[in-house]
Design a protein that fits this description.
mainly alpha, 2 domains, about 80 residues
Length: about 80
């Protein structure tokens, strides 16, 4: 493995630490998973932003009832992923 020094905001560091504890893994492993996701999808920040904006309003009124429950699913579909993961 290659060692890198990165800088995170206080909020990012705290959230990563909490998530690592919840998942029983290390912060380093979560960062590696995040890097793998970025490399695998090849999606840029601008592209993600564009897809999120395009997703606004794509849900029919009849589907909106479950938006608070299935928001991850709808967002994953908008990003072109098979599952929200």
């Amino acid at each position: 493995m290659v060692r890198r020094i990165i800088q995170l905001t206080e909020d990012q560091a705290q959230s990563l630490t909490e998530r690592a504890k919840e998942q029983g893994t290390s912060v380093s492993e979560l960062v590696r998973q995040g890097v793998d996701l970025i490399l695998r999808t090849g999606i840029t920040n601008n592209e993600m932003r564009k897809r999120a904006i395009e997703a606004i309003g794509f849900i029919k009124d009849t589907d909106a009832r479950d938006l608070s429950v299935n928001h991850d699913k709808y967002l994953a579909e908008a990003y072109g992923n098979e599952s929200s993961g």
